[in-house]
Amino acid sequence: MTTSSKPPSHTARAHSFNAAAAQYAENRPSYPPALLDAVEELAGRPFAGARVADVGAGTGIATAVLHARGADVIAIEPGEGMAAQFRRTLPDVPIVRGSGDALPLTDNCADFLTYAQAWHWTDTTKSVPEALRVLRPGGALALWWNTSAVDVPWIAEQSERIKTHFGIDRVVEQNGSGLRAALADPSGRLDFTHRRVRWSRQVPVDTHLANIGSHSVFLVQNAEATNTFLTKERDHLLTAFPNGMVEETYVVELVVALTP
């Protein structure tokens, strides 16, 4: 367990991704088609041809699937390192620097605002009014998070090892307060509908280790603490997956609200 006297700040964790943008882009999971199907169903309209602002776009993982779906998408990202990686990955998709707390967009300009793994980094006292300002009447605010399926035994065991080593519960800390619709907007101005989409992917052990190592819980630790954990974790994983291929199972937590 780390010996830090106090946990890293919310701001430090939010900024930690910029130095690890390439690792993030290469190893983080994407999102299944069934997730976009669910957003379209709840929004009552397709992404194809819609004006979409993907906020907290990071390296463009969600933006890429929205673009492939036929959306007219613009990305918004506050971090310099993440935005630079985005431009390398998706050179033909526009990206502007900014955050959900002060969107660099005009009023009533978007059919969808999407936040993938990002809403919990916003201040909802600012991001909720901004969403209502930018979305057109009948527009949709869609928030989602890939969360680890802790009903899978090896994932539950790994999460417990992370908690023990770092003194942090990764499953809770990784996803912030966004997992429940009521907490997505404490003011109650938005009426969210909640869905879950379960999916999985198979990746080499090294990819899985790089994936979990790209979470802020790891990025804000000193290199020795992180490397010690990842070295031991490799042994645990190879015991569970002797062929070296890890089956990661996710539950995407999705909430969607429509504007009046």
Provide a brief overview of the structure.
With 260 residues, the protein is α/β, with parallel strands linked by helices.
Question: How would you characterize this protein structure?
Answer:
Strands 3-2-1-4-5-7-6 form a 7-stranded mixed β-sheet. The protein contains 12 helices and 7 strands. It is globular. With 260 residues, the chain is of the alpha/beta class. Helix 5 (80-89) links the parallel strand 2 and strand 3. Helix 2 (21-27) packs across helix 10, helix 7 (153-166) runs antiparallel to helix 12 and helix 10 (205-213) runs antiparallel to helix 12. 41% of the residues lie in helices and 24% in strands.
Distance between the termini: 48 Å
Q: Give Rg in angstroms.
A: 18 Å
Strand count, sense and closure of the main sheet? 7 strands, mixed
Per the principal axes of the C-alpha atoms, what is the gross shape?
globular
Unreliable segments of 5+ consecutive residues: 1-5, 170-179
Instruction: Provide the structure class.
Output: alpha/beta
Give helix and strand order, one letter per element, not per position. HHHEHEHEEHEHHHEHHHE
Number of strands: 7
Mean model confidence by pLDDT: 88
Strand content: 15-25%
How many separate helices? 12
Please estimate the helix content: 40-55%
Adjacency order of strands in the biggest sheet? 3-2-1-4-5-7-6
Which terms would index this structure?
260 residues, alpha/beta, 7-stranded mixed sheet, 12 helices, 41% helix, globular, disordered N terminus
